[in-house]
Design goal:
Blueprint lengths: L28 E4 L18 E5 L13 H9 L3 E5 L10 H15 L11 E6 L1 H11 L14 E5 L11 H8 L5 H6 L13 E6 L8 H12 L4 E6 L18 H11 L7
Parallel strand pairs: 2-3, 2-4, 4-5, 5-6, 6-7
Antiparallel strand pairs: 1-3
Helix pairs in contact: 2-3
Length: about 270
């Protein structure tokens, strides 16, 4: 992919961004292993399950707890490995957060981060601002020279921040760019403009009356996926405030996780039943 980012927000080359590979001893990483189905013989080794990187939201200012380990526990319960990545936030600016997540992804993919997972199937689930990081990771935004394995294989975006030019989320924008907030930089980091034919299958959900990040963000991303013939599921719920995580006890909204699980079954990442 051609590097289209303004020079002011490019990252350094991927191979020189860290002094040592990520480790589970790092305080910004939390791992949950996939639970084995009930009735499985514990003496029989199970095939490694896929891994999902979990990126909490928080306006690029903090990390929402209910979008981190809570989500990882849900994924573990349906038979997936999950790794919560608390990427750098304010006062760190772009591309710090994306670079950290890319480094973790590459460390898992190459085995430098030793996890018993299916390294050929690594996905991402991102919420709000974490959804923006996830979308950039999915589109292969040219923040640095990243090899093909630097993209994820599947993406789940929950009420994601997508566009930095159309109804932008002002808090995320300010924390992400700081004094480098220019129209060129906003355009360069609008994920709906970065989708291509290599963007992975994507599950999106949003609420129509989201007062934090307008539903137009998910609609624009879905439209871009459709334009490039990328498989996707889009669910827009009529009501629900921003940032509701799993949505337990919130009426129709809580159905999103079951819909997502069914989608994961359809794509062969989770076993049916």
């Amino acid at each position: 992919m051609t590097d289209t980012l303004p020079r002011s927000i490019r990252a350094t080359p991927a191979h020189s961004r860290t002094d040592s590979p990520p480790s589970l001893a790092d305080t910004d990483l939390t791992f949950r292993a996939a639970a084995r189905p009930q009735g499985t013989d514990p003496s029989v080794p199970a095939a490694p399950a896929p891994l999902l990187l979990v990126l909490p939201g928080g306006s690029y200012r903090e990390h929402a707890d209910h979008e981190g380990t809570v989500i990882a526990d849900w994924l573990s319960g349906i038979g997936l490995n999950a790794l919560v990545v608390r990427y750098p936030v304010d006062p760190h600016r772009y591309p710090s957060g994306l670079v950290r997540v890319q480094d973790v992804l590459l460390a898992v993919r190459t085995g430098a981060l030793e996890l018993d997972v299916d390294r050929s199937r690594i996905g991402v689930v991102g919420f709000s601002a974490g959804g923006h990081v996830a979308a950039l990771l999915s589109t292969g935004v040219a923040s640095a020279p990243v090899p093909p394995e630097g993209r994820v294989d599947l993406s789940i975006l929950a009420y994601p921040v997508i566009s930095m030019t159309h109804e932008p989320h002002s808090e995320s924008l300010a924390s992400l760019l700081g004094d480098r907030d220019t129209l060129d930089n906003r355009r360069a980091l609008s994920a709906d403009t970065l989708v291509d034919a290599h963007t992975p299958p994507t599950f999106l959900w949003h609420t129509a009356d989201d007062g934090g990040v307008p539903v137009s963000h998910s609609l624009r991303y879905a439209s871009a996926l459709a334009a490039h013939n990328v498989p996707f599921d889009l669910h827009v719920f009529e009501r629900g405030d921003h940032g509701k995580g799993l949505g337990h006890g919130l009426g129709p909204l809580q159905a999103w996780s079951a819909l997502c699980e069914a989608w994961l079954v359809e794509h062969g990442w989770v076993s049916a039943g």
